[in-house]
Specification:
This protein has four helices and no strands. The protein has 85 residues and is mostly helical. It has a domain of 37 residues. Helix 1 crosses helix 3. The longest helix is centred in the middle third of the chain and has 22 residues. The N and C termini lie far apart (33 Å).
Length: 85
């Protein structure tokens, strides 16, 4: 399997995780982010992808630092998504 295929599969898994977070009461902030971005004119799929990129970065930091997932940093990165970019 080539690197691009693996990256695509990983991103699909991240999108699935985002979808689960959108439904879970414990991650209501993800739904609020999606709502904020779509109200600002971003397409829902584009907003989900932006959220998934934040999740990818947070997951990467977790693995590289060998520390637990930093939910506060994840929330902060979601808040920083600018729908105009």
């Amino acid at each position: 399997m080539d690197e691009n295929t693996e990256a695509d599969r990983f991103f699909e898994e991240l999108l699935h995780a985002v979808d689960q977070q959108l439904e879970a009461p414990g991650t209501a902030y993800v739904r609020k982010t999606l709502d904020r971005l779509t109200r600002a004119g971003m397409e829902a799929d584009e907003a989900r992808e932006a959220i998934a990129r934040c999740l990818a970065e947070a997951t990467d930091r977790m693995y590289r630092s060998q520390r637990p997932f930093n939910e506060d940093a994840y929330r902060t990165s979601l808040e920083m998504i600018n729908p105009g970019e």
